[in-house]
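Here is the promised in-class demo. Please do not try to memorize the tokens; focus on the logic of going from shape to residues.
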């Protein structure tokens, strides 16, 4: 389940809730003031990788699925 960030309209505090996507827009109780006047915030996320990324080849083999033979795997 994802973690969503919420903002309390009563005390202007923010908090996180581990909940399903289906329950995301439901009002959650603020842990600071116990108000149910809360709303989900749009949060950014970070993506980390280890090592260097390989360059993407956008040459003549790109632009199709494997079954189309254009991925370079040898299937025709």
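The designed amino acids, position by position:
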């Amino acid at each position: 389940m994802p973690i969503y960030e919420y903002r309390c309209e009563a005390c202007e505090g923010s908090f996180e809730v581990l909940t399903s996507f289906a329950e995301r827009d439901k009002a959650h109780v603020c842990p600071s003031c116990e108000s149910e006047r809360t709303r989900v915030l749009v949060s950014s996320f970070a993506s980390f990788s280890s090592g260097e990324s390989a360059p993407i080849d956008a040459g003549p083999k790109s632009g199709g699925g494997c079954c189309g033979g254009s991925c370079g795997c040898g299937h025709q």
